[in-house]
Input
Amino acid sequence: MTYTPIDYNTWDRSGKGKNILHLLTPVERKIWDAALPYQDARPNDRGHIEVVTSFALQLLKLIPSTDRTIVIPATILHDIGWSQVSQKLRDLFKDPYHPDFKKANDPTIRQKHQDESVKLATKILGKYRYPKSYHAEILAIVGDHDTRKYFTDINAHVMGDADVLWRFTVIECENYGWKPADFIARMKLNLKKEQYLLTPAGRAIAEAELKNTEAYFG
Output
C-alpha cells in the first residue's frame, strides 16, 4: 500500500480546504464551497470535514471499485446537519472527560444531525444540478452514516472509514483536549474492535496514522 501519513508541520488547520481544494473536481469544489458555511459546527470539529475528505480521496486511490461521484459528495455533506442542531446538544461533544460526553453517542442525537444533513444536502445537490441518478445513494449514506451498524456497499464503506480515520489524527486529539496517552490507548483498543474499520485499506491507514500520532507526541 502506498500511503503517506499527514504531515502536521505543514497541514493547514483552518478547515477551509487549503490542503485539498486542488484535488477536487470543479463540481466537487462547488459542493465544498456551498457546504463550507455549515461545516465543523460542533465545538471541537474544526478541520474535520477537510481531514475526512482527504482520507476519502486516499481510499479512492486504494480501492478502485469505489465511485468517486458518490463518495466525495457524501463525504463533504455528511456532517453539515450539526449546524442545525441546538447548541446544547452540540456542547455534549465539548469535553471528552466530562460525564456528558458519553451522552453524545445517543442514537437519537446522531439521527437528528443526519436528518438535518440530508435536508441541506438535498438543497445543495439540487442547486448545482448534480446528476439526479446519484442523489439517492449519496443521501442514503449521509442519512445513516453514524447510526447504521454495518454499511452494505463499498461506497458507504469508504465514506464510513474516512470518517472514522479522523479519530486517529493529532488534530482530533488536540481539538478535543485529549491527553495524548489516553487518546493513543483508546485508539489502540478501538483498532481491536470488529468492524471498526470496514476496509483493509482503511485499517492500514488507521495503523499508519496511529503510528504517526504516536511519533508526533513522542
User: Anything to note?
Assistant: Residues 21-217 form a domain with the Hypothetical protein af1432 fold (CATH 1.10.3210). The CA atoms of residues 88 and 180 lie 27 Å apart. The mean pLDDT is 95.
